[in-house]
UniProtKB/TrEMBL annotation:
<feature type="domain" description="Glycoside hydrolase 123-like N-terminal">
    <location>
        <begin position="42"/>
        <end position="892"/>
    </location>
</feature>
<protein>
    <recommendedName>
        <fullName>Glycoside hydrolase 123-like N-terminal domain-containing protein</fullName>
    </recommendedName>
</protein>
<dbReference type="InterPro" id="IPR045711">
    <property type="entry name" value="GH123-like_N"/>
</dbReference>
<keyword id="KW-0732">Signal</keyword>
<feature type="signal peptide">
    <location>
        <begin position="1"/>
        <end position="22"/>
    </location>
</feature>
<dbReference type="Pfam" id="PF19543">
    <property type="entry name" value="GH123_N"/>
</dbReference>
């Protein structure tokens, strides 16, 4: 975990001191970067700006098109954007508009066109292509070409087009890619046509020599070829089939069924009933039906004349496949049409789009959504600035404020809940962690209404807790459409799997040198190794396919597999190393992939004095500086990693997924570790399909820093990522959380249990409190779980059932709320865990329901657990005393 610090002081000590010291050497370490290949001799050549004399001589040759075009190969990345490189003024005039390249059959060949606009701004620039033809008349068809700057395929698999405009005095690189047929051979010639609008095009001559044997994976195995740019338009993982463990979503009249329950729609298109089918310990059960809603959801428009009488029309199912169901209906009144369009997916997540269309100018008193939760399904809450835990029994009033990363609310019980996320059609995924201020929420025009909107949660009354999302007064003009959109997620998202928690054991080291990972994991009994970035086998953040390290990483994974160890890699979207070979190609896309920002004027918690000198010198503008660190040992000692923030929900997600597929097939990875991410539900759904494609189990676990602070917008760490949970196997939340948080906070915001997941402890290192929720430390990062692993093995935790203290039918209970008890049962034995949640000694009487337990405990003992507790025999459990912050783990046997 690269970014997490308990206090600002700790941050400055762990990052700042090392980082500031490293920053002093940035120029030396990064000015050239020749050793690792980010800046090679060709790049150095492209960094040298043309002299003023050479530039003036060039400008005197004003072309007929009114701008200059320079064809360039893939090895000379166009880097400068305010002037041209000296290389172009040194080239003969007749070579400006000709590109020559060499490639192999089957390769995805990339190259560039540089446009220089000293005389005028260009609007609507486009590139077209002819076929390429060799001497035998064989063709590389024009349809095999693509210009990444003109558009491509978005994260939903839809094609899109970008309008390329170039300001006066700028240089714009256009990156071209072309699929070379496997059968191609010889010299192929053709044309590219660059034009502005309908003006006469500038012709670029293409000469491509195709020779050698067909190349593997289109050339993707070697990053320097920049063939991976095609990954930006990948559609891998898009499908209408559910991912495991889910089943197809089904429809019966107006009732939608999914793995965990049912949703019934009213004639308004909103849910009138939501039930879940989980018992109190989140096991699916046909005999359980937990009501989430006390009554139907209602959407209300109130004018100066009173509440509108919205008359619903017929509800129409517009699409139904195994993955989702879509519907639409329209409500009408004298003043309004309200169109409701909904989608519900196999993962228990729905999207509701409400369009309010006024028929005349209207004075609005309020437009609101009222959601009546049952008292049972509103016991706990998280969001709107409230830490996870028990829902307060007083009125909760919250107002929109985009300085805070707050736009969602979860209320629920352990086995029944509903998360609501409010937005409009202009929603843009905000930045997370310490970068929130540089990429805040867009205030929804509808719900936010210039900060007049907000949410009230009324105290429970008559078995109902009513949540009211209101938007307040406004004047609405005829034909002025408002979009009241929200996502709804039913929790838990899937059944808890205690067996996997008991048997899948991580080794996750912070050492830069990987030589000791495998021996240490084997010695401890771990079976999965997490490899973080900034390692000798994985040096640079979120780019695990870096050419120089791939061989080392592949060798490590192969050795681990030979010893029955799985390997998972740190891999997410949000920060991206500048070592990436495609850096300048991505830069040419504007803010599409590299997030726009203040550039050298940026100041963040870890860049208090501004970005690293390399970023200032090479990027200068339109970026946000992110993670950086120096290597002090290992293969990359003396080198440095520097990164920038990427744009959420961009084509970089497609690249990310194609890269994941490549790693599965070429490196043999056994899953990924996600650390504070910009990933969305759709992308992680696609990732899950890629990981599951060959039937092998591969894991995803997710970690997050403590976001409840001013830098991160006072957000709940766990809450940020609930939409990803259907595709996550384990959480690791709690960096910056201490062990003194209340048990209800541990349950809601750390354990993962109300969402159908289990977790591990992090900074809150209390083994008894952790065991209450099935949480152990992660080796060696957050402690030593080995003695507890040994206990779990001897007990048979892989075959056990969990009965949490929150379960009214838990077989073992205490009469002291400060000493909650969770019991794990396995046939004729049980493991009882009691934890003291206070600083003082506490006494309690323990009662056992032997019928629910399944046996009479004839033997009661404290098993010896190294560094946790001594062994001893107990005569009975009628009265026990536990010291402050301590606990007992008790073995009951028939």
């Amino acid at each position: 975990m690269k970014k997490i610090f308990l206090t600002v002081v700790a941050l400055l000590l762990t990052w700042g001191n090392a980082g500031l010291k490293a920053q002093e050497t940035v120029t030396n370490a990064f000015d050239d970067l020749k050793r690792t290949g980010t800046v090679n001799e060709q790049d150095s050549e492209m960094r040298q700006a043309a002299s003023n004399d050479a530039l003036q001589e060039l400008l005197a040759q004003k072309p007929a098109a009114g701008y200059f075009c320079f064809a360039e190969d893939r090895m000379h990345d166009i880097r400068l954007d305010q002037t041209i490189p000296a290389r172009w003024t040194e080239r003969a005039f007749d070579t400006w508009q000709q590109v020559e390249g060499d490639c192999q059959p089957g390769e995805f060949y990339t190259w560039q066109i540089g446009l220089f606009t000293p005389f005028k701004e260009l609007k609507d620039v486009s590139v077209a292509f002819s076929d390429l033809v060799n001497a035998d008349g064989n063709k590389i068809k024009s349809s095999s070409f693509q210009c990444f700057n003109q558009g491509g395929t978005d994260t939903n698999g839809q094609t899109f087009r970008k309008n390329v405009c170039i300001p006066k005095g700028h240089v714009q690189a256009l990156w071209i890619g072309m699929d070379i047929p496997v059968s191609a051979k010889g010299v192929y010639k053709g044309k590219a046509f660059v034009k502005e609008g309908n003006a006469k095009p500038v012709e670029i001559t293409i000469v491509l020599n195709v020779s050698g044997s067909p190349i593997a994976n289109h050339g993707d195995n070697e990053g320097w070829r920049k063939t991976r740019l095609r990954w930006l338009n990948s559609t891998l993982g898009n499908s209408d089939d559910p991912t495991a463990p889910y089943t197809p979503v089904t429809l019966r009249k107006k009732t939608l069924s999914w793995l965990g329950g049912e949703v019934e729609l009213s004639s308004s298109g909103l849910p009138c009933k939501i039930i879940t089918c989980y018992d109190a310990n989140n096991r699916l059960s046909d005999s359980v039906s937990n009501a989430v809603l006390a009554k139907e959801m209602v959407f209300i428009i109130e004018t100066s004349d009173g509440q509108e009488a919205l008359k619903p029309g017929s509800l129409h199912i517009t699409n139904h496949n195994n993955a989702s169901i879509n519907w639409e209906t329209t409500q009408k009144s004298r003043n309004f049409d309200v169109v409701c369009q909904g989608t519900f997916g196999f993962d228990g997540i729905g999207n509701i789009h409400l369009q309010v269309k006024p028929k005349r100018d209207v004075e609005i008193k309020d437009i609101r959504l009222e959601v009546p939760y049952t008292a049972y399904a509103s016991k706990y809450m998280m969001g709107l600035g409230h830490k996870g835990g028990f829902r307060p029994d007083t009125l909760i009033s919250w107002k929109w404020d985009t300085d805070k990363h707050q736009d969602k609310i979860w209320m629920g019980n352990v086995n029944a809940g509903l998360n609501l996320h409010f937005m409009d059609e202009n929603f843009v995924r905000p930045l997370v962690n310490i970068y929130y201020a540089l990429g805040k929420l867009n205030l929804p025009v509808s719900w936010g209404n210039n900060n007049r909107g907000g949410i009230h949660i009324q105290p429970e009354k008559d078995g109902e807790t009513r949540m009211i999302a209101y938007s307040g007064e406004r004047c609405l003009c005829k034909n002025e459409i408002l979009h009241y959109d929200f996502d709804m997620q039913i929790t838990p998202v899937k059944p808890i799997d205690l067996k996997l928690q008991a048997t899948e054991r991580f080794y996750h080291s912070n050492s830069d040198v990987s030589a000791g990972y495998i021996p240490a994991a084997l010695k401890a009994g771990a079976n999965l190794i997490n490899v973080h970035h900034k390692k000798d086998i994985y040096p640079f953040i979120n780019y695990p396919y870096y050419d120089e390290s791939v061989t080392d990483l592949k060798r490590f994974i192969s050795e681990a597999h030979s010893k029955d160890l799985g390997v998972r890699l740190y891999y997410t979207t949000r920060e991206l190393t500048v070592k990436i070979p495609e850096l300048w190609a991505l830069r040419s896309l504007g803010g599409e992939v590299i997030h726009d920002g203040p550039g050298k004027d940026a100041r963040t918690l870890i860049h208090r004095n501004g970005p690293n000198e390399w970023l200032n010198k090479n990027l200068a503008t339109h970026f946000i500086p992110a993670w950086y660190n120096a290597f002090k040992e290992g293969k990359y000692a003396g080198d440095m990693d520097i990164s920038v923030i990427t744009t959420p929900d961009s084509r970089w997600n497609n690249y990310y997924l194609a890269g994941l597929d490549w790693m599965v097939k070429n490196l043999g990875v056994d899953g990924i570790y996600i650390d504070d991410s910009a990933l969305d539900r759709k992308t992680l759904q696609r990732a899950r399909r890629i990981l599951n494609a060959d039937g092998k189990r591969r894991l995803i676990d997710i970690h997050s820093w403590n976001h409840m602070n001013q830098w991160a917008g006072y957000a709940n760490s766990l809450h940020l990522y609930t939409e990803l949970f259907p595709y996550i196997d384990r959480t690791w939340i709690g960096e910056g959380f201490n062990a003194d948080n209340t048990a209800d906070f541990w349950l809601v915001e750390m354990s993962g249990i109300p969402f159908g997941l289990l977790s591990e402890t992090l900074d809150a290192r209390n083994p008894f409190r952790g065991m209450i929720f099935g949480m152990l430390p992660r080796l060696p990062w957050s402690g030593n779980p080995v003695p507890l692993w040994q206990l779990w093995d001897s007990f048979g935790m892989n075959k056990a059932s969990m009965h949490g203290y929150w379960d009214e039918n838990c077989p073992v209970k205490t009469d002291n709320a400060n000493l909650p008890a969770t019991v794990y049962t396995n046939g004729n034995k049980a493991l009882l865990v009691i934890a003291n949640w206070t600083d003082l000694p506490q006494k309690a009487k323990i009662s056992i329901d032997e019928k629910a337990l399944g046996f009479h405990p004839a033997t009661i003992s404290l098993p010896e657990i190294r560094n946790v507790q001594w062994s001893s025999r107990l005569n009975n459990l009628e009265q026990c005393e536990i010291m402050g912050r301590s606990g007992m783990i008790i073995l009951l046997e028939k």
